[in-house]
Design a protein that fits this description.
alpha/beta, 23% strand, Trna Endonuclease, Chain: A, domain 1, 35% helix
Length: 186
């Protein structure tokens, strides 16, 4: 993972998701070229953890974009430079199928070709671009800035500094360990 994908991975993790980084999409009869989704993330509605996993711990901006009262699947593109083509059809289709929310995913795939999200009474799937820019308007996907994800992670570490600092080496990410160390030295 590059630093942007790693920040986004932890942003999702700190918002109660189970993230999967660099989901490989193999070449096949329907996909001529291999590809990957930067981050796929699933979140169930009744998430709880003692440290950093309570109702007031979730990011307000993300809650305004998604419906935390249902099972969520997010197909996320992360851009640390120029934003070019995002959300190619084959990647969106593979992400929807990998979530496994629907026996027949054709309605979700069709809706997500043109829209930012697809919902029913139990599930929501969204396309989210997280990029190193201040604003990126589109009707076909949601947007959060990469700086916002880093600031959210830092605010979460500040809120739970004592246990996060004491257990920082249990986090496999050296980037996250450095952020925790940095906050502890402020």
């Amino acid at each position: 993972m590059n630093y942007g994908e790693e920040l986004v991975y932890w942003y999702f993790r700190f918002n109660g998701f189970f993230p999967l980084a660099n989901f490989v999409i193999h070449s096949s009869t329907s996909n001529r070229y291999p590809s990957d989704c930067d981050v796929l993330a699933i979140r169930h509605p009744h998430v709880f953890e003692d440290i950093g996993g309570q109702r007031g711990d979730w990011d307000n901006q993300l809650q305004n974009l998604l419906k935390f009262d249902r099972t969520l699947g997010v197909i996320c593109e992360v851009k640390t430079g120029e934003v070019g083509e995002v959300f190619p059809e084959r990647n969106v289709n593979a992400g929807v199928e990998r979530f496994g929310f629907f026996a027949d995913s054709s309605n979700a795939k069709c809706a997500l070709h043109e829209c930012a999200q697809y919902s029913d009474a139990n599930y929501q799937i969204a396309k989210l671009l997280i990029a190193d820019c201040h604003n990126h308007d589109s009707n076909s996907y949601l947007f959060i800035s990469l700086l916002h994800t880093r600031n959210f992670i830092k605010s979460r570490v500040r809120k739970y500094l004592q246990p996060k600092f004491a257990q920082r080496l249990f986090f496999k990410s050296t980037l996250l360990q450095e952020i925790i160390w940095e906050i502890n030295t402020e």
